[in-house]
Amino acid sequence: MKRFDALIEIAKLLVNELVVCNLGDPSRELYSIKDRSENFYMMGSMGLTSSIAFGLAISQPKRRVFCIDGDGSILMNLGSLSTIANNNPMNLIVIVIDNSSYGSTGNQKTYTSKKTRLEIIAKGAGFESVTVIDKEDEIIPKLKSLGLGCHFVLIKTMPGRAQVKNIPLDPEKITIRFIKALSK
Ligand SMILES: [Mg+2]
Asked: pTM above the 0.85 mark?
């Protein structure tokens, strides 16, 4: 499976959930699969997807928040995992799509292609719920089985991007649209 395939499965589950999506190809791909005003597409702040999703989760405790991050980005901001796990918001799923590469900049390998195991880091950071998925058809059942809680989900994929267009919205529009969606 590639990231695009994983995103298609995740998108099938989105109803009222708020989504914070990693910058670059992941956001472009999600936009092409299922654009919605509840999607916040990161533009230009690599590494901060999980931090923004955490802030959103604690400020919107009645909404479920999906953080869709990548291996390269979470490796830039591992401290975020400790912050999230220790504060333990009951409405946050941190999904890391791990393709072992910096996909948006030309598939340079990340350290998850070598010795680094993000699921072990997440456990060590304090996440009580850690799930690893490596088959496409497991994504929906495993995500559905997660109840209220603070979850870390690692989805292992192959490198590679889908041929999709750029997002035709500027960051300001995305932000305003998203803020409006919060009051729905
Ligand atoms: Mg990656």
From this structure: yes
